[in-house]
Amino acid sequence: MQSISKVGIFTSGGDAPGMNACIRAAVRTALHAGKSVVGIYHGYQGMIDANFQEMSSRSVSNIIQLGGTILKTARCEAFRTPEGRQQAYNNLKTAGIDGLIAIGGDGTFTGAEVFSREHNIPIVCVPGTIDNDLYGSDFTLGYDTATNTVIEAIDKIRDTAASHDRLFFVEVMGRDSGCIALNAGIAGGAEAILLPEKATAIENLCTQLESAAKSKKSSTIVIVAEGEENGGAYNVAKEVKSRFDFYDTKVTILGHLQRGGSPSSFDRVLASRLGFAAIRHLLAGETRVMVGLRGNEIKTTPLEEVLNKKVFKLSEDMLEMMEVLSI
Length: 327
Description:
The chain is of the alpha/beta class. It has helices spanning 19-32, 43-49, 82-95, 106-119, 143-164, 179-187, 202-214, 233-241, 265-283, 303-308, 316-325; strands at 6-11, 36-40, 52-55, 99-104, 123-127, 166-172, 192-194, 220-225, 248-253, 289-294, 297-302.
């Protein structure tokens, strides 16, 4: 493989706390290795528009604590076409960019895999998504921060729920993954948690809520992952309300609140380790791999494997514990 002299870095898909810390680490690691670095703004759309900016060590000063992404992110339908990817490659070639670091989720990685194979450009990916749903890494960037954000919200909702003897349904992000819902629900002392990976009939939920009422709980909180089978918190609350006349039910949708905010210490350190490792592996000649945390070590996984293997991160012990601790 030809030696890489100029590295392009971009973020794509949903933003996640820790992306900026990762950008910082990747930029400074590449510069330390004597390579030039270019920031690609607005992800794949930026490649097609040639929205490039040379980056120095000072370009990433004072960003480690910031949420979001300084390189911006955007959807790009044009990149899904061979013509769009050809235009992107032509722009990268004109700019002298001969290696890429992609920070994002499975959609970002799918584009990277296809693009790298079509145009033989080296790409190393970093898992940046609050959903924690990628094979090959125990944790993804932003997951820890998002979970802590949800826990803080649950604690505040619990205060008002207890004051008014109310039943709150709190909907959290997780279309296909219940990691945030399960972990935040356990940490927040939720009475029930509805997950995409585990079917929960309304009848079963009502049995749990009836038990909570009989034990004279002063507040009841149900965490609902947005992708669970009953159609989200509003639908679940409506069904429950029709069966209980004594519950004062309320719904809170946390939404994009979960994406923002300053990254936690864990996410800052993880981001720094992954950004550092991504550059090291790229410069060592690796391509079409994702760097991820397994145990306490940073390891690479082929993108094809990341995209094709199903993630099972919900522990049966935790699911059982959730029910036991809710009594």
